[in-house]
Amino acid sequence: LKALMDRGTKMIILDARSLKNFQVAHIRGAQLPLTKDYYEKEEMFRLGIMSHAPDRDQALIEGAKRFPKTTKVITYCNDDCQASSVLLIQLKRMGFSDVRALDEGFQTWMGKKYPVIKPRPAKTA
């Protein structure tokens, strides 16, 4: 992935981890695969505001509509996590033709000092 980034390869990087993990830090250029609406409803379900969990599969179908199915897609998650492989299989079933999962996870990526985004906390008055 780092070599592809250095060459400026056109690709989509999808973070298969949770919204909370993504907000703490993520690989530069990564996006979340599901719709914004899904993550909002997931949080409401977690807080007990909604009684039913949102439909993750439908959110992936809707979220994936943003991307051309012929574009290279790289998925990743944490070290010792299978979410990126599950996402890879789902995307292939949806017709994406060039999908790969990062062999090592996010912690290994950070350990190698590869580019990550760590949003700055909001300033307080």
Walk me through the structure:
- The chain is an alpha/beta fold.
- It has six helices and six strands.
- The strands form two sheets. Strands 3-1-4-5 form a four-stranded parallel sheet, with helices on one face.
- Helix 5 links the parallel strand 4 and strand 5.
Q: What are the SSEs and their pairings?
A:
Elements: H1 2-7, E1 11-15, H2 19-24, E2 26-27, E3 30-31, H3 36-46, H4 56-64, E4 72-76, H5 83-93, E5 99-101, H6 106-111, E6 116-117
Parallel strand pairs: 1-3, 1-4, 4-5
Antiparallel strand pairs: 2-6
Primary descriptors:
6 strands, two-stranded antiparallel ribbon, 125 residues, globular, alpha/beta
Précis, in short:
By secondary structure, the protein is an alpha/beta fold.
Tally the helices.
6
State the shape.
Answer: globular
| Overall pLDDT | 94
Q: What percentage of residues falls in helices of 4 or more residues?
A: 25-40%
**DSSP, total strands:** 6
Structural class: alpha/beta
| Gyration radius from CA atoms, angstroms | 15 Å
Distance between the termini: 40 Å
